[in-house]
Amino acid sequence: MRFSEETLALVNKIIRRYPEGKQKSALLPVLHLAQAEFDGWLSPDVMDYVAGLLAIKPIEVYEVATFYSMYNLKPVGKCLIEVCQTGPCWLRGSDDIVHHLESKLGIKVGETTPDGMFTLKTVECLGSCGTAPMLQCGSKFHENLTTDKVDTLLENLKSTNQRTSYMR
Amino acid sequence: MPKKLLLEHIDVPSIETFETYRRHGGYASVEKALKTMTPDAVTEEVKKSGLRGRGGAGFPAGLKWSFLDRKSEKPRYLVCNADESEPGTFKDRYLMEKIPHLLIEGMITASYALGAKTSYIYIRGEYMYIVRILERAIEEAYAAGFLGQHILGTPYSLDLYVHPGAGAYICGEETALLESLEGKRGNPRLKPPFPAVAGLYAAPTVVNNVETIAAVVSIVNGGGDEYAKVGLGKSTGTKLISASGHINKPGVYEIELGLPVEEFIFSDEYCGGIWKGRKLKAVVAGGSSVPILPAHLILKTAKGEQRLMTYESLADGGFISGTMLGSGGFIVMDETACIVRNLWTFSRFYHHESCGQCSPCREGTGWMEKVLHRIEHGHGHMHDIDLLVDVAKKIEGNTICPLGDAAAWPVASAIRHFREEFEYHVKYPEKVANPKHFELEPFRSERLELSNA
Ligand SMILES: Cc1cc2nc3c(=O)[nH]c(=O)nc-3n(C[C@H](O)[C@H](O)[C@H](O)COP(=O)(O)O)c2cc1C
Ligand code: SF4
Ligand code: FES
Question: Shortest CA distance to B49 belongs to which of B218, B249, B197?
Fold first, then answer.
C-alpha cells in the first residue's frame, strides 16, 4: 500500500503547514486523501499506513478515524448519497426526498445497493438550510431538491459511473 | 438603502478573484494597518467598534484580543472558526464561497494586530469545495505580496493555511477545534486555561468566527468609532442572518442590528413573509441551540415592546419569554409545523454530536432523543413531558462545554411555550401516526397565537 507520488508530495506539503514536531496536525487532511485514494473508506491497513507516514502510533489514527463522521470505516458504494435530515431541511420536505431515494434505489437508509453503486445515508445540517432540501454527493451540494432533480442526479451518477469523493 | 459592510460587493461579477476584489477597494485595511498603524492601535479600533463575536456567544472581540498573552515566549496564533455546523446557520459558507478575499484580508489584518506569524482557517470538512476556493484566493494573495515574507515591504510576515475538519459539530467549540487542529478527537478542554493563554500547541491563541474576522476589514478602513455608529446601542454594526424554513425568500441577509424582527420576517427586502399564504407559528432566532419563541413573543416582548434584531432585545425576558441572537440562524415555522417533530430532529442532532466526555450530556441527549421520538410517534405518556424538562435541567450547567446547554435549551423552551402540543401528541396517538399530521390539520390551542402581521 502506497500513495501515488503526486499524493505523497501533497502529504509532505501539508505536513509543512504545521510547526516542526507537530506533524500529527496533518492527520485529518491526510485521512481525507487516503479515503479518496483507497476506494472511499479507511481500512485498518490504510490507517496503519497513515500512522507510519506521520510517525504516530496506529491507535492515534484509529481514535481520530472513529470520531469524525466523514470517515467511512466500512466499504461504501461507488456513490455515497448523504441527505440532510435536520430541522430546517425537514421543514422543507427532506423526509419526502429520503423516501423517494429509498424507493428508487430499493434500499433503506444506511444500506448499499446490491450492485455496489449507491450507499444512502442521512446526515445532520450541512450549512445549506436556505436551499433546503439538500443532499451532498462527493464534494458537491445538490440544493432546492425535488424528486425530479433526484431522478436526474441518479441518472447522471449512473452514466458517469465514477467513484464520488470529497476531494474532487 | 440598508447599510452593507460585508456584502456590499457580493454581486459584483468575479469578485472571488483577487483582481476584481482589489479593484473594489479590497486589501485597503492591510495597507492601512501595516503601513500606518501599530498592532495595538488596530486592537484599539476593534475595541472602540464594539464588535461582538459573530460565532454565537457574542463576546466582545476587542476584549478577547486584549487578553492574548503577549509576554509569552511562544508564537501566537490566530485561528478562524469556519466550522459552521449549528443547524440553521449558513452565512459563513456564503461569505467564503462568494467573497473569499474578504476573509483572507481580515485574517491578515487581524493576525498583524495579534502578532501572529502563522494563522489557520479551520473549516468543516463537508465544505471541501470551499477549501479549494479559499486556497486559490490565498495563492493569489501570496502572489500579490499580501502574504508571505515582508508583506508590502514591511517587516511583517505571515503564513496562512486552510485546515479541513471531518464532520463533527463539536469542533466548532473553540477548544475542541484546537484539539482537532492538533490532529486529535474533538474533545473540548476544561477551561481555564483559556486559549488566549494556552491554545493551539499550548501557545497563546485567538479563535474568532469567519464573520467576526471579516468585520475587522471595515472597522480598520473606517475606524472603530464609525463602525460603532452603525447598529443600535451595544449591538453595533451589521450581522449576517441565515434565514430558513417556511418563508418566501430563504437566504443570507446582511442587516443593520436594530431592525425590527417583524420587518425582517415580512418585508420583501428580507424573508418576504410566510410561504403559501400561511401564518407564522414560531421562530428559532439564533441557530438550533437558542430557545424557540411562539409568534407573539418573537414579534413583541412580554412587555409589549417591538422585538428588534439586537443581542439585547432578543434576550429581553430572559429564558422565560426571550431568546438569543446566537449565530443568526433564523428558522421560521408556519402554522403546519410540528414543534415536537422539529425538536426531535434537534435532539437527535445533539445526541449524535455529543463528544461523550460528560455523562449528563452523553446520556441525557440520548434520553431526550428517545423520549421525543416516543411522543412524536404516538407512544408517549403524560409524565414523559416532565421527564424531558427534568433531564434538560440536569444537563444544563453540569457539563464541560456548552453543547450540553445547547441541547437542553430547545427542549425546555419548546415545552414552556408549546406544552399543549406535546399533550396533544400523547392524547391522540392515532392522529399523530401520520408523520404529516399538522400539514393535514394544523394544531390549534387557545394559548397559541398565530400571526401574519
Ligand atoms: C457546541 C458548540 C459549537 C460551536 N460552533 C461554532 C461554529 O461552528 N462556528 C463558530 O464560529 N463558533 C462556534 N462556537 C463558538 C466558539 O466556541 C467560539 O466562541 C467562537 O468561535 C468565538 O468566535 P467569535 O468570538 O468571533 O464568535 C460553538 C460553540 C459551541 C459550544
Ligand atoms: S457537554 Fe457534551 S459535547 Fe461538551 S464536552 Fe461534555 S460530552 Fe462533550
Ligand atoms: S438543516 Fe439541512 S442543511 Fe441545514
Answer: B218
| Every domain of chain A and the residues it spans | 5-65, 79-160
Assess whether B95 and B174 both reside in one domain: yes
User: Is B170 touching A (CB cutoff 8 A)?
Assistant: no
CA dist B232 and B50 (Å) reads 11
Q: Which of A26, A88, A124 sits opposite B245 (nearest CB)?
A: A88
Q: Where are the beta strands (DSSP E) in B194-236?
A: 205-209, 231-232, 235-236
- Which range among B194-198, B354-358, B432-436 shows the weakest confidence by mean pLDDT? B432-436
**Interval B106-144: pLDDT, tens:** 999 999 999 999 999 999 999 999 999 999 999 999 999
Which residues, in sequence order, are bridge partners of residue B160? B119
User: Which ligand number lies closest to the CA of residue B172?
Assistant: 1
Secondary element (H or E) of residue B241: strand B238-245
Helices (H), chain A: 5-15, 27-37, 44-54, 58-65, 87-91, 94-105, 147-160
What does the block give as the cell for B333? 415555522
Shortest alpha-carbon distance between residue A7 and chain B (Å): 16
For the Cβ of B399 lying below 6 angstroms from any atom of ligand 2, the answer is yes
Measured between alpha carbons, how far is B179 from B280 in angstroms, rounded to an integer? 42
Residues B62, B53 contacting (CB under 8 angstroms): no
For A89, name the nearest residue in chain B, comparing CA atoms only.
Answer: B245
Residue B54 Cα to ligand 1 midpoint, Å, equals 8
Task: Give the structural domain span for B270.
Answer: 239-334
Q: B202-232 burial, b if ≥16 CB within 10 A, otherwise e?
A: ebbbbbbbbbbbbbbbbbbbbebeebbebbb
What distance in Å separates the CA atoms of residue B212 and residue B409, rounded to the nearest whole number?
25
Return the CATH number at B266.
Answer: 3.10.20.600
Residues of B in contact with A60 (CB under 8 A): 183-184
Residue B2 to residues A158, B274, B305, B361, B384, Cα–Cα distance (Å): 47, 22, 23, 42, 47
Nearest to A97 by CA among A148, A56, A140, A46: A148
CB neighbour list of residue A113: distance below 8 Å, 6 or more residues apart: A77, A105, A106, A107, A119
Question: Could you report the per-residue pLDDT of B149-168, keeping only the tens digit for each?
Answer: 999 999 999 999 999 999 99
Question: Which of B199, B229, B259 marks a domain boundary?
Answer: B229
pLDDT in tens, A114-167: 999 999 999 999 999 999 999 999 999 999 999 999 999 999 999 999 999 999
Look up the ipTM and state it.
Answer: 0.98
Any idea which architecture A79-160 has in CATH? 3-Layer(aba) Sandwich (3.40)
Is B90 close to A136, i.e. CB distance below 8 A? Answer: no
Residues B39, B158 share a domain: yes
Kindly indicate whether the domain formed by A5-65 is annotated with CATH number 3.40.1350: no
B162, B195, B229 - which closes a domain: B229
CB B165 within 8 A of CB A71: no
Q: Answer for the pair A164, A79: CB distance below 8 angstroms, yes or no.
A: yes
Asked if B322 has any chain A CB less than 8 Å from its own CB, the reply is no
Residue B381 lies inside a defined structural domain of this protein: yes
**Mean pLDDT, chain A, as a whole number?**
98
Q: Compute the nearest-CA separation of A129 from chain B (Å).
A: 6
Is the residue at B199 inside a domain? yes
Partner residue opposite B87 with nearest CB, options A32, A70, A87: A87
Could you tell me the three cell numbers for B402? 456548552
